[in-house]
Amino acid sequence: MHLNKNSSILSEIKYYVKKNRKSILGINLLTPLSSLLNIGLLYFLKRVFDDYIIISKNEQAYQWIFLLLALFLLLSLVEILQTYLSVKTFTSIAKNLKMRLYNVILESNIISISQKNYGEIGSYFRVDINSFVNLINIFVCGLFKEILTIIPIIIFIFYLNPLFAIVCICVYLLLIFPTIKAGQKIRTISHDLLRNSERSEQLLHDSIYGHMIIYVFRLKNYFINKYNMFNDDLAKNVIKSSLLGKLIQPLNDISFILSMLILSVIGISQIKTGKMSIGDFVIFLTSLYKLSGPIKGMFGIYASFQSSIISSERLVNLLNEPSPRAKEDTITLPGFNHSIVLDRVSFSYHSKKRVLNEITMEIRKGERIVVLGKTGAGKSTILSLLLRIIIPDSGTIKIDGQDYQSLDIDSMLNLVGYVSQEPILFNDSIEHNIKLGKLNASALELAESCRIVNLEKIIENLPLGIKTFVGEKGRNISGGEKQKITIARALVRQPEIIVFDEATSSIDFESDELLRTEIFNVFLGKTIILITHRPIRNSDFDKVFTLENGILKMIYNRK
After folding, report:
1. Angle, CA of 137, 124 and 222, to the nearest 5°
2. Same domain? 10 vs 136
3. b/e per residue, 397-427, with b = 16+ CB within 10 A?
4. Is the residue at 478 inside a domain?
5. Do 481 and 536 reside in the same domain of the chain?
């Protein structure tokens, strides 16, 4: 099945088997018990048929019938227990995978994760996890269950009539090769199906996010046609995959019918010559019917494996990506006491032209500094470097004399308050969005941060006040209100260093000046880093830098 090409999948399967070994053992122990009960039912049915229907021995008929009913009831209980254990085990595995994947998404490098679209990330949770759980089920329970069901029945039919058993096996073996071919085709189609599903889901997300643009530019028909095209491709692949999957299962039915026809001819001949009883013949056909179920299951498992392996490989590769925080961060930063120094730092994206070219900057504790530059000049790249979202291609960044790559990332970022260029709000209340800056913030701290950004009056006029939901991406409130909430979130954190990345771009100039003055007063003695393209008064800052063509220049220094 080509799993040797990807040992990481096997490693993941082993991990979950070991973690759930008790319940998996229970599921697999119930399988042979179920098989034995099935054989018992067939055997006692043969006795009832031969002794009490054909020969008419009625003395113990009721006892045999009672025994058959008891075995059937016991078999049903075993199957119910096995189903319960199976559902519980694999639901637990799916939950664990979701939590691991969610953790990987949050821990991943921001640049790396931003290159994945919403449809792709969504399909990891919606498709890939289910595929991988299905793959585990196939290997640790599905195959084992079907094999343990098939083997006793084959032994039993050999016991009844070796010739019949050989005929059945030969017929089934003839149909293995077309099954393998169909399975390989399913694997290819599953890859296309995954991509088409992602594209369709991504376009839906984009259409909701960009609804205003679609409305104003009258793009409804264009997007409808595009969505229809994606779904046409998706539907074609779904049909192909379903047809091939269904084609595999009828191969089992064909084998069963061929076997029945051949055995009927042979069986009638043997009954006439007295070599086989009618009871043996009926029980053999019943056993063959019982055998067709697990063999159909084996064909289904093969088709399911081929459709699951592509998604599983992709999921396991993501789960095993090295974390950017996996380095030995041995130094804890207790506070910010002296300075941040960038020394001849250079950076480029994807080895293209340098965005930053040997820039040097010193930010001392308590200073207010501003970096000015046009859109796309690389101002936000400086912040990404300072926040360790990315690391320099060359040069060093030191905090209080320590190389910042050797610092514990949590202790470092706990000193920082950050306000992004685009207001980032979560689909929750105003209160919740502000408290994300400090989860245990008191009502007084929340009120003070709202007062500083002039959010108090706005909140007072809302029906639910600070408990008002902002909606997805803050769609229920204005752009200026969104920006004020994100600034309040940074303020309530009471950070040593506060960083503004074009944070007041959604606020008018007058409000910008007032807000900046208020923040400077509140954070007197704290370090403030401002990135902006707006004109500023040099006298408001200790240092003013300009960034152009990757070159950083200091144009003002109060000292």
Report:
1. 135
2. yes
3. bbbbeeebeebebeebbebbbbbbbebbbee
4. yes
5. yes
Residue 376: phi and psi, rounded to 5, are 85, 5
Please choose, from the candidates 273, 200, 280, the residue with its C-alpha nearest in 3D space to the C-alpha of residue 236. 200
Average pLDDT on 87-116 reads: 77
> Which one, of 538, 523, 525, lies nearest residue 487 by Cα?
523
Q: Which domain holds residue 374?
A: 339-557
- Shared domain check, 280 and 195: yes
The CATH number linked to 118 is 1.20.1560.10
Element housing 62 (H / E): helix 61-107
The Cα 516–Cα 491 span in angstroms is 12
- DSSP category for residue 423: -
Q: How many domains does the chain have?
A: 2
Asked if residue 329 is part of any domain, the answer here is no
Q: How confident is the model over 406-450, as pLDDT tens digits?
A: 888 888 888 888 888 778 888 888 998 898 888 888 999 999 888
Q: What single letter denotes the amino acid at residue 144?
A: F
pTM greater than 0.70: no
* DSSP H helices in 175-219: 176-209, 211-216
Residues 273 and 353 in one domain: no
Both 200 and 243 in one domain: the answer is yes
pLDDT at 281 over 60: yes
Q: Residue 43: in which H helix or E strand, if any?
A: helix 21-47
Query: Is the residue at 330 inside a domain?
Result: no
- Answer yes or no: do 312 and 349 share one domain: no
**195 burial via Cβ count (<10 Å: 0-12, 13-18, 19+):** middle
Which structure tokens are listed for 339? Answer: 């300075």
Q: What is the DSSP string of 107-175?
A: HS-HHHHHTS-HHHHHHIIIIIHHHHHHHHHIIIIIHHHHHHHHHHHHHHHHHH-HHHHHHHHHHHHHT
Contact 407, 333 (CB under 8 A): yes
Per the DSSP assignment, residues forming a β-bridge with 530 are 370, 500
Q: Which of 319, 350, 367 is the last residue of a domain?
A: 319
d(Cα 162, Cα 158) in Å, to the nearest integer?
A: 4
Tell me how long the chain is. Answer: 559
